[in-house]
Amino acid sequence: MQDNNSNHIIVEDQPLEIAGKNFTNRFLLGTGKFKNKQEIADSIRSSGTQIVTVALRRIDLEQSSESILPYIPKDVIILTNTSGARTAQEAVRIARLAKESGCGNWVKIEVINDSKYLLPDNHETIKATEILASEGFVVLPYIIPDLYTARALVKAGAATIMPLASLIGSNQGLKAKEFIKILIEEIDIPIIVDAGIGAPSQAAETMEMGADAVLVNTAVATSADPALAAKAFSLAIKAGRLAYLSRLPKQKDIADASSPLTGFLFEAS
Amino acid sequence: MLSMKMIINGQEKDFEPSLSLENLIDSLSQNKAHVIAELNGNIIKSSEWVRTTVAEGDKIELVTFVGGG
């Protein structure tokens, strides 16, 4: 559908709703690994992201350290991750500390106790979600895509499910595609694909299959031009969303001509 | 007693006695905005720092927000 005086396509899409808040942008940005804080601010602006993740760390007692928060616009949701937590209890402690800062009660639960693959511990994540959801936190748990875990998280009060696409920071793309597809099919709360998305084409593919949003950090932060990469991801995610809404046809094993196969001009009458 | 020892972020530090949490954080010359404090495992609201006295052997955690994915 087109409006009368421009090429703007009017898209009938619902905003992404999480905990009663509506988001028109389906790109979430992680703020780790950037060379400096200004690059984070520039990437937030260029991408139009409405949710960014941050982490909590001990302050450096030897030198004055500056919080990242002044670089994040006030209208952007701060989603504190619990990175560094190895157990549910540690994740709960980090979430409570973050809430104390007064910048909201949104928490991405990330419980990791394997240092080689950095895979999240689904079992501990369920335990932390139960506790924090019951305390009124908006809980976005990060998991290895698994249907039973996702169902337990829904029951525990999670606001979304964040399955990993591939190993964190690996840029390998949608290695877990078939398992994420099952979550998209079976789980009624938003599915935000997180970790391992290394290129806009991979983000678009993720959205085409029906994911509700995508979180990217490493691929943006470690590119040569983070603000440009952030914009590329944001556009790819929009394109992927539109493609999903358009209900693309299925793949076929044989050719199917695009031009009519009758009425050739050299046909005998 | 001329000084008292406390564990701040896992490091042993010496401070003058009868210090408030507010004084202590100031003495570490930190930018206090967005610092969150935990005293012996309990979160202390920043509005309470001035009224909170720290003592020998206390364990204090001071954290803030950094970039993260």
Radius of gyration of chain A: 21 Å
Order of SSEs of chain A, N→C? EEEHEEHEHEHEHEHEHH
CATH architecture of chain B: Roll
| Biggest β-sheet strands, sense, barrel of chain A | 8 strands, parallel
Strand order of the largest sheet of chain A: 8-7-6-5-4-3-10-9
- Number of contiguous helices of chain B: 1
Word description of this protein:
- The complex is a heterodimer of chains A (269) and B (69).
- With 269 residues, chain A is of the alpha/beta class.
- Chain A has helices spanning 37-47, 88-100, 122-134, 147-156, 177-186, 200-208, 218-221, 226-245, and strands at residues 16-18, 21-23, 27-30, 51-58, 77-81, 106-109, 138-143, 162-163, 192-194, 213-216.
- Chain A has one domain (16-245): Aldolase class I (TIM Barrel), CATH 3.20.20.70.
- With 69 residues, chain B is mostly beta strands.
- Chain B has one domain (4-63): Roll (Ubiquitin-like (UB roll)).
- Helix content of chain B is 10%, strand content 43%.
- Chain B is built from 1 helix and 7 strands.
- In chain B, the strands form 2 sheets. Chain B has a 5-stranded mixed sheet, with no helix packed on it. Chain B has a two-stranded antiparallel sheet with strand order 3-6.
- The N and C termini of chain B lie far apart (46 Å).
List its traits.
heterodimer; A: 269 residues; alpha/beta; TIM Barrel; two-stranded antiparallel ribbon; 8 helices; 10 strands; B: 69 residues; mainly beta; Ubiquitin-like (UB roll); 5-stranded mixed sheet; two-stranded antiparallel sheet; 7 strands; 43% strand; globular
A few lines on this structure:
Helices cover 33% and strands 16% of the residues of chain A. By secondary structure, chain A is of the alpha/beta class. Chain A has a single domain, classed as TIM Barrel (Alpha-Beta Barrel).
